[in-house]
Amino acid sequence: MDWKIIILFLIVTFNSYSQKIEDYTIFKDGEVYINFRRYIQKMMPQIDAELEKYSYKKPTEEHYKKVIHSFINKDLLPQNIVVLNDDLNPYIAIQDKRIIYTEGDEVDVDGLILFHLNQYLFYKDLKSLEWLKDNHADMLSNFVVTFGVYRDKTLLKWYLDENINNETGIQVLFYYRKNTREFIRKEMVLAVDKMLRGTPNEHDFAINAAKYYVQRYSHDFDNPKEIIDFLFNSSRGYYIEDPDGYSNIRADKSTSSKILGKVKSGEKIDVLDDTSNWYLIKTKEGLKGYVHKSRIKIK
């Protein structure tokens, strides 16, 4: 088998695997044991009543799954009730209701939280966002940090405005823990890089907070040198990396789509949309089109 084909197979296999969400149905911590699927099934009549009370309108299935993928960067499991994160109070996708569920502060099923959270997530209702900011800012911040929300610029900007002088608040945005190890969210670093470019002091504070954390706790990382090199690289960004030496830029999200041009391997690009397997990119010459994500690397 040709070595280029082998490399492509490994890249695609890895990307496909990384897109599968883990099953967090069971939460165990010491003596605490919760089956969230059974819990939600038990609470479903109350959830239905609250959604009806506030006249929540379900989005289409396609839009629902697309939005969730944009936040968690993974595809949902096929079952109706999918726990999205490993936590005592997780976010839970209930697919037939087209909502993300989270418990309220004082009651298990808080209709106002359910309504406004889902109104913003799936309809970008800014009035609902303002209500969440005013009444449940901690929950909103937790959502941004839990899923590393970098594509929603409105939500990310709000979080940065709230935490720009909070070193810990910035660090938990850039890093996440899995199986006792720390990992960096490179997409988040690039998003913050771009968002704070016009405010040098805030930009430096954020990046320096990220640098300090990995240097201070390097023993918690598998690849601290690579992360440090990335953070100290002023040219960090998205680059083409293709074994053929170039990638085709296409008019649409398909290998059969018209080729608009080519971009050389090693060339830096702007990513305008990364919500599908085909990224909408712009070259340094200004040419826009689609390149498969397996040909794009962050470094």
Q: Roughly what percent helix? A: 40-55%
The value of Rg in angstroms is 21 Å
**Number of helical runs?**
11
Task: Give the CA-based shape.
Answer: globular
Order of helices and strands: HEEHHEEEHHHHHEEHHHEEEEEEE
Q: Extract low-pLDDT stretches.
A: 1-18
**Major sheet, described briefly?**
5 strands, antiparallel
Question: What share of the residues does DSSP label as strand, in percent?
Answer: 15-25%
Instruction: Report mean pLDDT, rounded to a whole number.
Output: 92
Structural class: alpha+beta
* Distance from first to last alpha carbon: 29 Å
How many strand units? 14
Order of strands in the sheet with the most strands? 13-12-11-8-14
Q: What does it look like?
A:
The protein has 299 residues and is of the alpha+beta class. Helices cover 45% and strands 19% of the residues. It is built from eleven helices and 14 strands. Helix 4 (111-123) packs across helix 5, helix 8 (167-174) crosses helix 10 (200-216) and helix 10 (200-216) runs antiparallel to helix 11 (224-232). The longest helix has 18 residues, at 36-53. The protein starts with a helix and ends with a strand. Mean pLDDT is 92; it is low at 1-18. Residues 235-299 form the SH3b domain. It comes from Capnocytophaga leadbetteri.
